[in-house]
Amino acid sequence: MFAAALTLLTSLTALLPLVQGTSDENPPPEGVTWYVNAAGTGLGTGSSADPFTNIAYGVSRSYVGSGDTFLVAPGTYDDEEIDFYGKSLTIRSSGGSSVTTIIARPMLSPMEPHSAARLRSGEQDVLIEGFRFTGGTGSYECTGFTSAVGGAIEACGGASLTVRDCLFEANTAERGGSIYAQDASIEIEGCRFTGPGTEARGEAVYLLRADAEIKDSIFEDLFYVSADIPRGGGAVVADQSTLELERCTFQRNATRFQGAHLWGRNADVTADGCAFGSSTGYAGASISASGGTLRLMNSTVRLARAIQAPGAGIFGSGADVLVENCLFELNRVEGTREGGAIAIQAGRLNVEGSVFLRNHAGQGGAIAISQSTNTLISDCRFVANAAPNGGGAFASGDSFATIERSLFQSNTALPTGAGGAVTGRAVLEYCTLSSNHAGTDGGAAADRASLVRSIAWANTPTDLAPGVMANQSLVGLPAGATVTAPIDGDPRFWSGSDFHLLPGSPAIDAAPISEGLDSDGTRGEIGAWPYVPGYCPPDLSLGLETPVCTSIASSSGEIASLTAFGSLSIQRNRLLLLTRDLPPQVPTLLLASRNQGMMTVPGMLGPLCLGSPFLRLLTLQAPSRPDGTAPSWVRLTTGGTNPSPADLTVQSGDTWNFQLWFRDSNAGAVTNTSSAVQVTLR
Questions:
Q1: Whole-angstrom distance, CA of residue 236 vs CA of residue 274
Q2: Residue 483's closest CA among 475, 492, 495?
Q3: Terminal Cα distance for the chain, rounded
Q4: ∠ CA(387), CA(391), CA(397), 5° rounding?
Q5: Which residues lie across from 82 on neighbouring strands?
Q6: Residue-range domain boundaries for the chain
Q7: For residue 4, what are the CA distances in angstroms to 12, 13, 14, 16, 17?
Q8: pLDDT 10s digits, 533-575
Q9: Domain Right handed beta helix, which positions (predicted)?
Q10: Does position 21 have pLDDT exceeding 80, yes or no?
Q11: Less packed terminus of the chain by CB within 10 Å, N or C?
């Protein structure tokens, strides 16, 4: 009995250091959880019953080793300067950043700044989670005592760390007001960085030769205003580093120099799914890239304000800039400089699938390129951008651009500029330019621009300025421009703001066959938007018809079906009919009548469901398309003195019936009919 009791007592005694803390002479096994509570007494031993009261003190204990975890209770931890001493640790708050604050050791003299946490001995896989950091002033160790960096956290010497769910508020340093990483690897997740700070370049994060990922984080109210340093970024700087940003938000940041939100210097920077909000600065007031590569994807850049400097949204100098699926809105260059959304000098620019809305600059309201910048722009929309000196949307100085499948609408170069949409050396292929305005010439294009297989329509004072060249294009008022192989007629846009093509547009199937065939087997369209027979704008309606009768299957094996869509409003004049499941490329004729009937016609397989008298809308006679569709735009009029023979004269409240006749060799017949439908106009 005594021996058993002695054995049990010995076992409990061996476990006691793990419960109450331990001494330097008896290190615990790896993976221990240590406890910290500012409300404790003394310095503590790290147990749950006797927690450390200072994080730095606990980390410095020699018996604390790599793999250990510090669980920090809610409270305020001041006078902190946590040196990790090469240990790979997890430091996590139990209550989160709203209730757990780390205040760095106060700076007693300008030569004695302090970071709240320092990693400078190759620490690996460090995790810092759930704290509010404030009052940091930086440290000199990583820079060899040349400048104070990393107001809250400093990492160098090959360290790697993750910072998660932290708040950084009112920290400052010469570089990296909150975080500085040099020759290190860092991941930042779910953090918020906010000012005010005063003297930091890279007010929130500064990276030097570092690899970094920043996700789901917010950078706001950060200001770099020092007049002593000749350049600097307001929120994040990547200097000779690799940086990936995902789903981050930047707003209300400012700098006296460039990149209030983000500055890349000979860096490889990618931003995906980010929102870059209001900013103020000089070149690249929002984002700046000096050398290196900048990739911006699925992001928004709004409300950037550049003061007498180019590129309010993005400024690139000697950089490769790639933009995909982004929105640039209400960015502004104050003064005569260029590029309200983007300005690139001596670099490369590739923009795809993006929208430029209401940006403003002296030249190139949306985009300006210069100094031999090579540019490709494709599948973009430029709407209501402005530049009083020319190039309401785009301006090219001594550089060259190719612009493909893009729309330019309501851009202006007023009051004295030329090229309401585009000016300079640019080739526009398959573009649509409409309702753009210039003060002198070329509402659509001026200077050395050229159009290929494009549409320039309803621009003022003319569509093209003298010297502009257009080939295989539809141009309304070419003025002194040279137009070869022109395509004539009204392009028949859906509306003044929707540039999809209506049936019967001369732009449909107008591209040369050498350009290849569309997916429906026809030649392509000129202009920005391909023709879609069943297209209906979001503000209009599908399924406007009431069925009257069905028909009999044609040689295609299907019954040809007729549907109505668009609008029943006579004033709107957008009633469209689409017949599907026809034999390909057979003659068709749309029939209309106020009356219904049921008639069989010799040689015609299906019934004629329209009553007498009926109209043959000869102007809508056209072969079915290779995909077996036949679209028709029924042009409505209430009469007047000279109604067009292409119009159907109607009155409000009229009910009309429609049916398509078509050639069809099937079961001994030579013709057939579609189903018939009825619509009531208003």
A1: 13
A2: 475
A3: 104
A4: 115
A5: 117
A6: 73-281, 546-680
A7: 13, 14, 16, 19, 22
A8: 889 999 889 999 999 999 999 999 999 999 999 999 999 999 9
A9: 139-276, 303-425
A10: no
A11: N
- Domain range 546-680, CATH architecture: Sandwich (2.60)
* 480 within 8 A of 468, measured Cβ to Cβ: no
Query: What is the CATH number that goes with domain 73-281?
Result: 2.160.20
The DSSP-derived string for 646-682 is TEEE--TT-EEEEEEEEEEEETTEEEEEEEEEEEE--
Structure token digits, residue 408: 């330019």
Three-class secondary structure assignment of 214-264: EECCEEECCEECCCCCCCCCCCEEEECCEEEEECCEEECEEECCCCCCEEE
Question: How many helices and strands in the chain, by DSSP H and E?
Answer: 2, 64
Give which of 266, 306, 270, 271 is closest to 285, Cα–Cα.
306
Which residue(s) pair with 525 in the sheet? none
Q: Provide the 3-class DSSP secondary structure of residue 383.
A: strand
Residue recorded with tokens 């028949």: 492
* Poorest-pLDDT segment among 2-6, 183-187, 515-519, 523-527: 2-6
Helix/strand/coil for 645: coil
Q: How many CB atoms lie within 10 A of CB 236?
A: 33
Report the amino acid identity of residue 335.
G
DSSP state of 499: -
In sequence order, what DSSP letters do the residues of 266-298 get, joined into one string?
EEEEEEES-EE--EEESTTSSEEEEEEEEEEES
Full-model pTM: 0.90
Rg value, the chain, Cα: 35
Query: What is the reported pLDDT for 16?
Result: 37
What is the separation of C-alpha 6 from the centre of its chain, rounded to a whole number of angstroms? 72
Note the pLDDT of residue 478: 86
Q: Which of 391, 367, 365, 370 has its CA nearest to residue 378?
A: 367
Helix (H) or strand (E) holding 163: strand 160-164
Tens digits of per-residue pLDDT, 507-531?
Answer: 999 999 898 888 878 899 999 999 9
Query: Who has greater pLDDT, 141 or 266?
Result: 266
Pair 374, 349: CB distance under 8 Å: yes
Closest Cα to residue 553, out of 520, 586, 583, 587? 583
- pLDDT, one tens digit per residue, over 90-127 is 999 999 999 999 999 887 666 678 899 999 999 999 99
Order the strands of the 304-307 sheet from edge to edge: 223-224, 253-255, 279-281, 304-307, 332-334
Amino acid at 247: R
653's tokens: 């409240």
Least confident of 236-245, 457-466, 513-522, 536-545: 513-522
SS3 state of residue 87: coil
Residue 422 to residue 663: CA distance in whole angstroms: 47
- Statement: residue 148 has pLDDT above 70: yes
Nearest Cα to Cα of residue 387 among 348, 346, 338: 338
Query: Comparing C-alpha atoms, which of 459, 455, 467 is closest to residue 511?
Result: 455
Rounded Cα–Cα distance for residues 94 and 71 (Å): 6
Q: Which has the closest alpha carbon to 624: 677, 563, 680, 581?
A: 581
